[in-house]
Structures are given as structure tokens and as C-alpha cells.
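Hi everyone,

Forwarding the result from last night's run.
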Amino acid sequence: MKFSDRLKRFFQTKKRVVKREYAGASNSRLFADFLTSTRSPDSEIRYALKVLRNRCRDLSRNNEYARRYLNLLKTNVIGEKGIGLQVKAKNEDGSFDRIGNTIVENAWLKWTRLGNCTVDRRMNFVDAQNLFIESLARDGEVIIRMVNYNNPDKFAIEFIEPDLLDDEKNDVLKDGKRIRMGVELDEYRAPLAYWMLTEHPGDMEYSARYTRTHIRVPSEKILHVYMPDRAQQTRGVPWMASAIQSLKMLHGYREAELVAARTGASKMGFFTSPSGDGFTADDTEEQFRSDDECRARHVPPTSGRALTLRHSTRLTQRPHLATLKGRSSGESLRVSGSRTTRWRTI
């Protein structure tokens, strides 16, 4: 083959079109309303955390599905008897140290009793575990302070609401340290201390004077538990955050359906005629069983089925000639008269 033919064939060859992109990154009209964010996890959480937490708390109080979700967590994760302690320490010969294990387990059970493990003396350790898992799912994080308490074990825990960890406390300190949403971090973003409010921001009804004063609590005395969704995330997000909108819409939909059903069940119908004005009498009930009686009252024969017409004293000014359908046979019964009439089949 000549060189010119090869050159001509080369230029005549169709170019292959190769699609090198992700369909999810398309800029077509189908994605015109798909708005995204490139902010860091702390930047996304900072202004949304308080709203998300309050809305999840409202759902846990007033939404049956959210309440059931939290109850199932306590039932399936914690259980009736809670998470216990079983010691399996061994001796040098490999056998279990039964005496030592029993001593430790008995001391543990003594500490978990009501009025001993928490500083408020209102919970045993099973109650504390239930509060822990519910707070973790509802608020997104749990804050526990370890206290040198005045009990036989000289140790107790204190649950602190996340509202007291001031999310508006943000600052840049020396030596690369910084404060993000109330958490003081070192240069590796490890927590050094927690800046707590001395009073709950929502407890103003019981405070003579509310001031946003802080105390610095070292991280060695704090257990800050949450499930991070992204790296370098400082605060926790409620587990129901992505379901808030659906739960709210579902609750409104069910409420609207129930109201519509109740309204429909409360509707009444009346058969009226112009000549029914001024009629006053007690309710009477007449049963028509023969065809002759039905014809006398301008009602088609009921084919052996009894029809009850209940005359009412309530009248309107609208003339109307109505058609009724029997419940069993589906036949139409045209009713007209000089009085307002309600009907039922027997």
C-alpha cells in the first residue's frame, strides 16, 4: 500500500468518543437543584448543631417513630440488666483466679448501685447506660465528667448536657492551639480542655442573672463520646439528623389524613323540599314493607327489603330531589316529600 493511501486512510478513520467522567458529577439539568458544600466538618456543624439538636429533642418528645427508635436502642443495646462486668483474671498456672475475680465483681456491683455511681444519686448504672445511649442518639454526643466523689469508692460520674459545652466559644491560641466549639485542641487536634458554661443557656427561668461565664475543665476529667462522620470532626451530630425532614413531613401527612377522615365522618346530608317550611313535629319512624305503601309515598318498591325513613324537624330552604342507594342490592331509591327526611336501611 502506498504511503498516500495510508495517509488518506488515517484521516478517514473516525475518532472514538470516550466518556471520561462520573455520572454523579454531571452538570445537566437533572442536577441543577443539587447544591453541595465544600466546607470542613466543623464549619458545617458550627451553625447547624444547635438547631439539629433541638429539633431531634422535639421529635423525641412528640413523634412516635422517633420515640420508638430511642426505646429500641435502649432495649436492644443496653437491655434489661445493662452491660455488666465479668472478670476472668488468671493465675500464673493458667487457672482462673476465682477469689480475686469475685472480689472485683462484688466491688463493681456495689459501685453500680442506686445513689452511688452518679453524683446526683438518682441513678444506678443501668439507668446511666440508658441515659447514655439515648443522649448519644438524640443529641449526637455525651459528655461525662469523672468526679472525685464523697462515696466509699471516692469516684462517681456526672452527666453534662452538650448545651453547656459552648459551641460559640471559638478562638486561636498560642503555640498552634485553638478552641473549636468549646473544645481546646493542640496542634494535632487532640483535646486538651473543655470550656463549659457555668449555667445552662436554657435555664434562665431559674437563674436570677444569666451570664455566659466559662470554666476550663481538663480533658483528663471529661469523657466526650460521639461518632465522627468525617476526619477532624470536633463535635457530634444527632443520629436522626438526616431523618428530621422525613419524620416531620410524615407526621404532618398522617395528621392531615386523620383530620380529613374525622371531617368526612362528621358530614351530614338532608333531603329538603320548599313545602317543608314551618313543619314541627317529633321524629317519627315509618317502615314500608309493601309495594303499595312505597308507591303511595313515591318510593320505588324495595323488593322485600325494609326501608326506614326517619322524619326530622330540621328544615332548609333548598329544594332537592335525592337518589339513595341501598347498601345490599345497590338499587336507587328516589325520595321526595314535604318534610325533611333522613334515612337508614334495616
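The radius of gyration is 38 Å.

Cheers,
N.
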